[in-house]
Amino acid sequence: MALASPGGDTEQRVGLADARLAAPTALTGPVRSFHRAIQVTLHRIRVARRNRLHRERREAFATLPGGVSQSTLDAIASCESGGDPTAVSSDGSYRGKYQFDYGTWESVGGSGDPAAAPEPEQDYRAALLYAQSGSSPWPICG
After folding, report:
1. Which one of 61, 93, 102, 134 is most buried, counting C-beta atoms within 10 A?
2. What CA–CA distance (Å, rounded) separates 70 from 64?
3. Which tens digits make up the pLDDT trace of 24-54?
4. Which element (helix H / strand E) includes 10?
């Protein structure tokens, strides 16, 4: 079915709809504003979802177990890695802020690469280890 546009041109209804969906830059006026509002809203939803996940993870590891103080952990981390949560030893065996090896990391509930874990999780896992074993897992820095 053909439609007459105000300028006298004739376009296929389907062709016009396809052009609007495929090329948002061709949109004008209220349709473009509506399209932009949808994009902004979707972006805000994605950001809010990401922020919520970060907050939930932070809160999950906010309380250190076993009465271990953050200052104790900071001293160990400073000595082990300079406090860098992404640090990796020269041979790659020790990873993260507290220089966990994979076996020790897994023994305190960690999974994956300790150096890729968020810093609050590394703090939490180090506190668990300290509560279980004292400073012995860090013979030089503990």
Report:
1. 61
2. 8
3. 566 678 888 898 899 999 999 999 999 898 7
4. strand 10-12
User: Could you tell me how far CA 98 lies from the centroid of its own chain?
Assistant: 20
- Residue 117 DSSP code: S
| CB-CB neighbours of 109 under 10 Å | 10
Distance (Å) of CA 87 to CA 14, 41, 64, 106, 133 = 57, 38, 22, 18, 23
Encoded tokens for 87: 């640090």
Q: Cα–Cα distance between 77 and 142 in angstroms, integer?
A: 9
Of residues 44, 45, 41, 23, the one with CA closest to residue 32:
23
The DSSP annotation for 17-69 comes to HHHHHH-GGG--HHHHHHHHHHHHHHHHHHHHHHHHHHHHHHHHTSSPGGG--
